[in-house]
Amino acid sequence: MLVCIAGAARAEPLPSTATAAAAPPLVTDESRPPLGIFPTSQDALIDPRMARSWGELPARWFVSTAFDVGFVYARPRVSAGYGRPFTSWVGVDANPIVLGAGLGMYGGLRFELPHLDLRLGPRYFVSFQHTYLDNRDSYNRLQLETEGGQKAKTLTYEAELDMSLPLGPGTLLGRASVSYVSGVPADQSVFEETLHVIVKPPLVWRARGGYALRLGHYSQHSIGFVVDVLDVPKRDDSVTLRAGPVLRMVLSRRVEVRGSFVVTVSSPDKIGLVGGDFTELGVRYRWATE
Question: How far apart are CA 250 and CA 200, in angstroms?
Answer without folding.
Answer: 39
